[in-house]
Amino acid sequence: MNEHKELELKYLTNKDFKLARLLNLLTKNGFIILDIHDVINIDKYFDTPNKDLLKDGASLRIRIVNNKPYGTLKYPVNKDNNYCEKTLKRLNFAKVNYLNEIMLSDEI
Length: 108
Known about the structure:
Layout: E1 2-8, H1 19-28, E2 42-46, H2 52-55, E3 59-65, E4 68-79, E5 84-91, H3 96-104
Antiparallel strand pairs: 1-5, 2-3, 3-4, 4-5
């Protein structure tokens, strides 16, 4: 399993939010925008019946990209009021066809 740390900031925007303004602000502050394009994600999230992952600020997701499943487990290692530092583990799947069936199922 590959393990990464990520710092995640989430913001609520108002109805007047303009992506172009945000990108302009980022570039003025030294960020480099390499690519902008639309992406369609097919995601399914999994948890226990008691929502234990959600209660702990964790998540278990399978994402299908170009018919290939990618699993991600994220769990917090440090939280404060401004950001949440999470450890991210990439999961490898051997049975791709079975996972595609799970992802396309409406029973989950």
